[in-house]
Amino acid sequence: MKRLFKTYLEKPELAGLILLALLVVIFEIRSDGVFLNQDNLRGILGILPETGLVAIGVTILMISGEFDLSVGSVFALMPMCMAVLMVEGVPFPLALLAGLVVCAVIGFINGYVTIWFEIPSFITTLGMLFIARSLTIVVSGGFPPLLPVDLPNWLFTSFVGPGHMFRMSFVWFVGIAVLTSLMLSRTNFGNWIKATGGFHPAAASMGIPTARVKLACFMLCSMLSGFAGMLQVLRLGSPLPSIGEGLELQAVASAVIGGASLAGGIGTVAGGIIGTILIRIIDNGLVLSHVDANWFKFAIGFLTIFAVVANAWMRKRAKAIKMEG
Amino acid sequence: MEDAIISVRNLHKWYSGVHALKGVSLDLKRGEALGLVGDNGAGKSTLINILSGVHTADEGEILVDGKPVRIARPRDAMNLGIETIYQYNSMVPTMSIARNLFIGREPTRFSVFGVGILDQKKMASESIKAIANVDLHLRSPDALVGELSGGQRQGVAIARAMHFKSKVMILDEPTNHLSVKETSKVIGFVRGLKAQGVTGIFISHNMHHVFDCCDRVVAMARGEVVLDKRIEETSIDEVHGVL
Predict the structure, then answer these.
(1) Cα dihedral angle (A252, A256, A259, A261), rounded to 10 degrees?
(2) Which neighbouring-strand residues pair with A11?
(3) Mean pLDDT for the stretch of residues A144-154
(4) Which of residues 116-175 of A touch B (CB under 8 A)?
(5) What is the ipTM metric for this complex?
(6) What per-residue string of b and e applies to A173-205 under the rule 16 or more CB within 10 Å gives b?
(7) With 60 as the cut, is the pLDDT of residue B77 above it?
(8) What's the mean pLDDT in B216-241?
(9) What crossing angle do the helices spanning A71-87 and A38-63 adopt, rounded to 10°?
(10) Judging by beta carbons within 10 Å of its beta carbon (0-12, 13-18, 19+), is residue A125 exposed, middle or buried?
(11) What is the SS3 assignment for chain A?
């Protein structure tokens, strides 16, 4: 029993999960049952993949001990590149590939500059936040291009499932979440990510290629962000250069609420997703509960601090429970 | 020398103008426990870092089992059977004992380009065995290393080196910051190495620890070897004298 209790206290995403359950109940009551009805859930699940995928990337990168502030800008740049290419007549699959390559290159630059010049990734990616946003507007030429009409929306945004509950983007999201989660917990590469972020000197002295591990995480983070941006653009039907502004901090908040440590080494993909769901639910639930929507950012801020404090407390409690023998 | 497991010949190392190693030559005999002593900056750590692949020598030669080798990265040293245990650096506190035991050498299934699915069953069972082999009593391989005491961590590090059948184990000040009881435990581990046929290099500031568990003592000062004698042929005072 004690052991079970301890194991659970050590789970970093626990605080987020408890809060999530609590908020669902509160919002369901406060909104007179509107919150959990099918239409509302459908709305939440339709947007969730976009911020969720960014949070997955940011969480994994944070576990490896680094940080990415440029995800919001990459979120806008990737679909803009695709849109411009498609206007030039490039078919969708090729444009998608090119967009992902752009993201990979940005992630590579973020990582390379951070690692080889030994600068905090906070600075590198802050620079990239401006650079990628600027490129988005330059590439668009000031006017967002019109998307062609024959896009494969059936693959990304159409509603599917029983009662048309989900968009296809949700299927992608679940698939990527499961894959990245397994990668982190079940593969040796996941072990290297945690070791690199957990204690870099130990990882390096045990022969883990820490630079390559971090580079891979930077690139994965950028590519997930770009892909998420594309999902949003396909949903909105227009590549606006301003999408994703402020997303970088929301993604960090998601990761942290989900139990990831800014110092690296601790965190789970599930935690990052729980954090994202919490933010989406607060956004939606406040409105349904007839609370002034301007309290949204207040709630996110409060939640971030609260989750970190709660996690630190639980970790301390878990450590204090001594197991015999 | 015939039975030398590691020989270094005329090693030189410069750190931005500082001549840290000035032509060090040393033979490490199979199965012996060598105590390496010296003041800070004497070149002990430089020598160890070169042997463990953290740095490379600017000049000189390293022979393992009589054959010249190149140790460019930590992984090269590990593949040659040289395992280094640092004072702090060898464990990730946020990870479990089982995961720490296999860092960088995880057993995998279906691996592609070196990345694969962890064989967690194997990791759990083998880590229990490895820990028991060094006479360390821990409740579960799933406990976080961050919850272990300093001595227990060194025990796990030694268990790891034993598990991977290291031929040479380098212990870089493993007793620093440990309590008296924990220190004697670690010294016990070092004595245990001999019984299992592992060659050891034991680095310490504390002469008593070295004389407690080593066969031979090498003293370094200002980048050179200044004394190299068997324990029974020298005394703590003599070693102190040359430093």
Answers:
(1) 90
(2) none
(3) 87
(4) none
(5) 0.83
(6) beebbeebbebbeebbbbbbbbbbbbbbebbbb
(7) yes
(8) 88
(9) 110
(10) buried
(11) CHHHHHHHHCCCCHHHHHHHHHHHHHHHHHCCCCCCCHHHHHHHHHHHHHHHHHHHHHHHHHHCCCCCCCHHHHHHHHHHHHHHHHHCCCCHHHHHHHHHHHHHHHHHHHHHHHHHCCCCHHHHHHHHHHHHHHHHHHHHCCCCCCCCCCCCHHHHCCEECHHHCEEHHHHHHHHHHHHHHHHHHHEHHHHHHHHHHHCHHHHHHCCCCHHHHHHHHHHHHHHHHHHHHHHHHHHHCCCCCCCCCCHHHHHHHHHHHCCCCCCCCCCCHHHHHHHHHHHHHHHHHHHHCCCCHHHHHHHHHHHHHHHHHHHHHHHHHHHHCCCCC
What's the mean pLDDT in A141-170?
87
Q: What is the pLDDT of residues A242-260, one digit of tens each?
A: 999 999 999 999 999 998 9
Q: Is the pLDDT of residue A87 over 50?
A: yes
Q: What is the pLDDT of residue A325?
A: 37
Domain positions in chain A: 2-320
Work out the minimum CA distance from A216 to partner chain B, whole angstroms.
13
Helix axes A296-320, A14-30, angle to 10 degrees: 140
Is domain A2-320 annotated with CATH 2.60.40? Answer: no
Q: Is A262 on the interface with B (CB under 8 A)?
A: no
Domains of chain B: 4-242 (3.40.50.300)
Q: What is the rounded distance in angstroms from the CA atom of residue B128 to the CA atom of residue A60?
A: 29
User: Best of A10, A184, A185, A188 to disrupt the B interface by mutation (most B CBs within 10 Å)?
Assistant: A188
CB contact under 8 A, A202 and B137: no
Q: Which amino acid is located at B237 in the chain?
A: D
Amino acid at B124: A
By a Cβ cutoff of 8 Å, what residues of chain B touch chain A? Answer: 52, 54, 73-75, 78, 84, 86, 88-95, 99, 102-106, 108, 111, 114-118, 120, 137, 139-140, 143-144, 146-147
Report whether pLDDT(A84) > 80.
yes
Decide if pLDDT at B40 tops 70.
yes
